[in-house]
Design a protein that fits this description.
Order of helices and strands of chain A: HHHHHHHHH
Mean pLDDT of chain A: 89
Number of strands of chain A: 0
Number of domains of chain B: 3
Radius of gyration of chain A: 30 Å
CATH class of the largest domain in chain B: Mainly Alpha
Oligomer: heterodimer
Low-confidence stretches of chain B: 1-38, 491-497
Strand content of chain B: 15-25%
Largest sheet of chain B: 5 strands, antiparallel
Distance between the termini of chain B: 56 Å
Strand content of chain A: under 5%
Helix content of chain B: 40-55%
Low-confidence stretches of chain A: none
Mean pLDDT of chain B: 83
CATH architecture of the largest domain in chain B: Orthogonal Bundle
Number of helices of chain B: 19
Largest sheet of chain A: none
Number of domains of chain A: 3
Structural class of chain A: mainly alpha
Chain lengths: 210, 497
C-alpha cells in the first residue's frame, strides 16, 4: 500500500497534522513550561517559608521565657499565626503553654495545649499535648473533664502517661484502689529504662493499703 | 528533502525513546539497575524503604569504637562481645536517626544550609582566638574521618532532631500538685519498729534424726555422685628448636605404636622419663601441665585410650612439645557413702528447718503486730529487742539499709490505726519483722525556694524526656525496619564496600 503514497502526500499529511494539532501542541508546551516553572517556584517558596519558620522557632527555643514574657508570647504567637500548618506552630504552642503554666495561667495553658490537639498534623504531638492538657485540667480542679480528655487517647504507646495521670486524678477523688490500679498499670506500661516517670514509685508507695 | 525529514523524524524518535528511558531511570532509580546480584544486602538497614548505607554504618561504627577506646582509656575494647554490643548500639542509633529525620523532613522541619554554616562558624571546637578557623575545621574533619559533606548532613540531622527533642523537653512542665507530691514524698519520714530474729537461735532448737538424714540421702543421690577419675602415664618430647628432634619424633611415634600396651620401651630407647599425672575427671574446670591442653583431655577420654587401654597417637601441645599418653589407672564413678556426707546433710537439714521455722514465726509476729499487738511485748517474750525509730527519712543513717529500702516501699495502712507489717530476709540470713506505723509527709512550707525550683525543673525535664522517648517509640512501632543482620552477627565482615 505504501507504494501509492508519494513524498508529496507525506508532506501534505504532515502539514495537515500541523494545521490540526499545532496550536494544541504550542499551548501544551507553554502549559508544560508554566507547570515546570510554577512547580519550581512553589518548591522554592515552600523551602523559603519552611526555613524562615525554622529560624523563628530556633530563636524561640534559645530565648528564655522568664526574661521577657511579653516578647516570648509575641514570638510564639507569630509562629503559630504565620505558619499554622507547619510543625513549628505546634511546638511553639507547647512552649507557650509551658510559660503559661509557670505563670499559673492555667486556662491559657490549657488553650495552648488544646490548639495542638486540634490543629497539629503530627499525631504523636497531639497525644502528648492531650495528656499535658489533662494535667492542666487537674490543676484547675476539673478531674472529670481531665478523665474525659484522656479517654480520647488512641495510641497505646502513650498509655504510660495516661495511666499515671489517671492515677493522679483518682487520688484527688480519694479513690485509692483505682489510683493504685492505674499507677501499677503505668509501671507495667513503662516500656524500658528510657521511660522513667519521675515520681511514680513515690506516689504508689504513699497510697493507703487497701 | 524527504530523506531530510525522515532523518529528522528518526532523530526525534530516537530522542523520544532515549528521553523515555531517562525518565524511567530517573523515576525508578538507576541504582536498581546497577545493583549487584550477589545476594548480600547492599545496605546496613532499611527504614520504611529508605536505606542506611554500609558506608554510613561503617563510618559511624569506627567513630563510635574510637570514642569508646578513648573513653576506656586505652583498655582493650576489641573483644567480640564488646564489638557486637557496640554494633547493635550503632545500628539502633542510625535507625532512630533515619526514622526521625525522614519523618521530620516529611512534616516540614527544615534546616537551611545557611543555618548549618552559621552553626559551624559558632562552634567553639572550630575556633582559634575566638575566630572560626578553616584549617582547624579541616584538621578536625580528618581526625573524625568525616568528609565535609558527610559532616554537614550529619549536623543537619542532629539539628533537625534537636528541634523536636529540645522543643518537647523544654515545653513540658511540673504542676504545683507534682511539686507538692515530690516535696511531700521525697521529704517524707516514717515511724517504724522492727525486731531481728537471729537464724542462729533457731538452729540450736532443731533436732535432726538419723532417719531424716537417710531419707534425704536417698532422695538426693545425684548430689552425692562423684564422676569417674583417671590417672595418665605419659612421655614428653621437648619442643624441637633446631630440627634435631625429627628423628626422635618419628621414633617416638613408631615405638609407641608398635608397642601399644606400654610406654616403657619408648622410654628406655629415647631416654625420656615416664611421667604420671594426678587423678582428674573429664569436666574438671582448671587443669595444669599437659592436662591444660584440650587435645590431651579429649584423647584421654577417647575410646581407644580410655576403654581399650592403648597408647595414644603423638599429640603436639601449644608449646611445640610432643606427648604420648596412656591411662595408668581409673577410679570409677561412685556415690559417696552416707557416712562421709552425713555431717553435710545434717547441717543442710538443720539450716533448712531453722529457716522455715524462722519464717513461720516471723509471719505470725507480723500478723499479730498488724492487728495491734505491741512489738515491744512480743520481742520481750522472745528475749529480743524491739527497735522503734521515729522520723526515719529515705537516707537515714544507722538503720539497716535493707530495712530502710523496704520500709519506704510499704503501703500506708488503710485505717491508719494499726501499722502495716512485713518480714524481710536480711543478707546475713536473719529475718527482720518490720512495722510501719505512720508517715510524716514533707511540708511545702519548710521547703526552700531553691528546693522547690529544683524539684520543678527536675520533674518538668523528666516528663519532657519521657515525651520524647515515647515519641520515638511510637514512630519505631509504626515503621518497617529491615536490618542487615550480617553486620551484627558476623565478626569478620567489617570492611567498607
Amino acid at each position: 500500500m505504501s507504494e501509492y503514497i508519494t513524498d508529496h502526500d507525506r508532506v501534505d499529511a504532515i502539514k495537515r497534522w500541523w494545521d490540526n494539532n499545532g496550536t494544541a501542541l504550542v499551548v501544551g508546551i507553554i502549559l508544560g513550561l508554566i507547570l515546570i516553572f510554577g512547580w519550581q517556584y512553589w518548591q522554592r517558596y515552600q523551602l523559603k517559608r519552611d526555613t524562615t519558620a525554622s529560624q523563628a522557632y530556633q530563636v524561640l527555643l534559645t530565648t528564655s521565657a522568664h526574661d521577657d514574657t511579653a516578647a516570648y508570647t509575641q514570638r510564639a504567637q507569630a509562629i503559630i499565626k504565620t505558619y499554622p500548618s507547619l510543625p513549628y506552630a505546634a511546638l511553639s504552642s507547647l512552649l507557650l503553654a509551658r510559660m503559661q503554666v509557670d505563670q499559673k495561667k492555667y486556662d491559657l495553658a490549657y488553650a495552648s495545649d488544646m490548639w495542638v490537639v486540634n490543629h497539629a498534623s503530627d499525631d504523636s504531638l497531639k497525644q502528648i499535648a492531650r495528656v499535658r492538657a489533662a494535667r492542666v485540667l487537674l490543676a484547675m480542679k476539673k478531674p472529670d473533664e481531665a478523665l474525659n480528655l484522656l479517654s480520647k487517647m488512641d495510641d497505646p504507646n502513650f498509655a504510660v502517661l495516661v495511666d499515671e495521670v489517671k492515677g493522679d486524678i483518682y487520688v484527688t477523688q480519694h479513690n485509692f484502689a483505682a489510683a493504685r490500679k492505674a499507677y501499677l498499670q503505668a509501671q507495667q506500661d513503662a516500656p524500658d529504662s528510657e521511660v522513667l516517670l519521675p515520681i511514680l514509685e513515690l506516689k504508689l508507695s504513699s497510697l493507703p493499703a487497701s | 528533502m524527504l530523506q531530510k525529514i525522515r532523518d529528522k523524524t528518526q532523530g526525534w524518535f530516537a530522542a523520544m525513546i532515549i528521553g523515555a528511558v531517562c525518565v524511567t531511570f530517573a523515576l525508578w532509580g538507576i541504582h536498581y539497575y546497577l545493583q549487584g546480584v550477589t545476594g548480600k544486602p547492599d545496605y546496613a538497614a532499611k527504614v520504611n524503604g529508605k536505606a542506611i548505607s554500609l558506608a554510613d554504618f561503617n563510618i559511624t561504627y569506627r567513630q563510635a569504637a574510637q570514642q569508646q577506646a578513648e573513653a576506656l582509656g586505652g583498655m582493650d575494647n576489641n573483644t567480640p562481645a564488646l564489638q557486637k554490643a557496640l554494633r547493635v548500639d550503632v545500628m539502633k542509633e542510625l535507625i532512630e536517626q533515619k526514622l526521625l529525620t525522614t519523618s521530620l523532613f516529611k512534616q516540614g522541619y527544615r534546616i537551611s544550609a545557611a543555618d548549618i554554616e552559621q552553626f559551624i562558624v559558632n562552634m567553639p571546637q572550630f575556633q582559634e582566638n575566638g575566630q572560626f578557623s578553616q584549617t582547624r575545621f579541616n584538621q578536625i574533619m580528618q581526625t573524625m574521618m568525616y568528609s565535609q559533606s558527610q559532616f554537614y548532613s550529619q549536623l543537619q540531622n542532629q539539628l533537625l532532631i534537636g528541634q523536636l527533642a529540645v522543643g518537647l523537653s523544654n515545653s513540658n512542665y511540673a504542676l504545683p500538685t507534682d511539686v507538692k507530691a515530690a516535696v511531700m514524698l521525697l521529704n517524707e519520714t516514717r515511724d517504724i519498729g522492727f525486731v531481728v530474729l537471729p537464724l542462729s537461735s533457731f538452729v540450736t532448737q532443731v533436732n535432726v534424726t538419723e532417719a531424716q538424714i537417710a531419707t534425704y540421702y536417698k532422695q538426693h543421690q545425684v548430689r552425692f555422685k562423684t564422676p569417674e577419675q583417671i590417672q595418665l602415664q605419659y612421655l614428653q618430647l621437648p619442643a624441637d628448636t633446631k630440627g634435631k628432634n625429627t628423628d626422635k619424633s618419628d621414633l617416638l611415634a613408631n615405638l609407641t605404636y608398635e608397642n601399644p600396651d606400654s610406654l616403657e620401651i619408648a622410654s628406655e630407647k629415647l631416654g625420656l622419663p615416664l611421667m604420671t599425672t594426678t587423678f582428674f575427671e573429664a569436666n574438671a574446670p582448671k587443669n595444669t601441665g599437659i592436662l591444660a591442653s584440650k587435645s590431651v583431655m579429649a584423647v584421654a577420654f577417647s575410646n581407644d585410650v580410655l576403654n581399650e587401654g592403648y597408647n595414644s597417637d603423638v599429640i603436639t601441645l601449644d608449646d611445640g612439645s610432643q606427648v604420648v599418653i596412656r591411662v595408668l589407672s581409673r577410679k570409677p564413678a561412685s556415690v559417696m557413702p552416707l557416712s562421709s556426707v552425713q555431717e553435710i546433710i545434717k547441717n543442710l537439714l538443720i539450716k533448712q528447718t531453722a529457716q522455715d521455722n524462722m519464717k513461720t514465726l516471723g509471719e505470725q509476729l507480723a500478723q499479730k503486730i498488724a492487728k495491734g499487738a505491741s512489738g515491744t511485748v512480743i520481742a520481750n517474750e522472745l528475749k529480743l529487742n524491739w527497735h522503734e525509730k521515729t522520723d526515719v527519712n529515705r537516707h537515714q543513717q544507722g538503720v539497716n539499709p535493707q530495712v530502710l529500702l523496704s520500709v519506704f516501699k510499704m503501703y500506708v495502712s488503710a485505717d491508719r490505726q494499726h501499722p502495716t507489717t512485713q518480714t524481710i530476709l536480711l543478707p546475713n540470713g536473719n529475718l527482720a519483722v518490720v512495722a510501719f506505723y505512720q508517715a510524716h509527709y514533707g511540708d511545702l512550707k519548710t521547703a526552700t525556694a531553691e528546693q522547690l525550683q529544683m524539684f520543678n525543673r527536675k520533674i518538668a525535664d523528666d516528663y519532657g524526656n519521657v515525651d520524647y522517648a515515647l515519641y520515638v517509640r511510637s514512630l519505631k512501632k509504626q515503621a518497617k525496619i529491615k536490618i542487615n543482620q550480617s553486620l551484627i552477627n558476623d565478626n569478620n565482615d567489617m570492611e567498607a564496600p
